[in-house]
Structure of Tricarballylate utilization 4Fe-4S protein TcuB:
Amino acid sequence: MSVNTDSSNARPLDAIAEARRQLEVCNACRYCEGFCSVFPAMTRQKAFADGDITHLANLCHNCRGCFYSCQYTPPHEFDLNIPAALGNARQESWSRFAFPSAFGKLFHERGVAVLAAVIVVTILAIWLVQSFPLGGGEGFYAFISHNVMISIFIPAFVFPFFAIAVGLRRYWRETGGKSVGVSHLIIAFKDAATLRNLDGGQGQGCNFEKTDRYSDTRRYAHQATMYGFLLCFAATTVATLMHYILDMPAPYSLLSLPKILGLTGGVLLCLGTAKLAYLKTKADATLGPSRVWGGEMAFILLLFFVSATGLVLYFVTGTTLVEWMLPLHLASVFTFFLLTPYSKMAHGFYRLAALVREAQLKR
């Protein structure tokens, strides 16, 4: 008897069961054993517990090479679609581990609406704050005082990291994670830094946007996005240290370290997210969790908007346009960080945890 399930639209409650069904077929075939880390990891077990499925789903980078190499994809009665099956299980795990759980489920089902509502409300709130005489400083602080800005953004930074920590703890317990050694972290961070699993496991690239043709474009776009974000985060960190430890408050000159890091990171982030958005329109939506396609695209565009408005602010500093651009940029940054535990951004944390766990299991 064949089991014919549309894995691209599997309901969250069915996601793990469907992924288990498909992986059991793969484990019997093993044609894709030389592909990305998912397949060597899969062969360690004959049966898959829920935690095993969660681990394999978060280890998957959705390169899609397995789908285009598989002889059991539709219209075969086995109806295999491993990228979609693992994508649905992965999305289900993020929703289930999210803190608070109710908000994780809400964003999972209504991500675009939640994102739009938060950014609009934040823009209106910042414009309202600007209408009061709370500035008086230099640069951006002439429009919003340093203390007001800190009081708004500290909760937006602290709460997401706490929520992510809770989610990762839940993930670690479900997947059977043990005490982490330095060697595990080195292996995991090396894989994450090079995005090794986006090369299809054989160094030829992935099939994300070119079906049966290999390409490294998605890998390069991810690297530009990742390193662009890290450079922007480094710019903020350096500026904070300069302000509070070295008593060197903003604004900073164009050749200062915060500006150099921020400009470089902003350009990389713009280029990377723009390319990722384009590639997403070229890829087959049925080879991933298609029910959250809009939310994922909205997140990519939000990250692009964060970097683009930040770059615009650099160039309009000293003009009246700052009064209009500053709320747009701050609102997008606030929304990005506040929704990080529930948006596509969470995948970076869970995939890193999966790489650490995989390094443990290999030992």
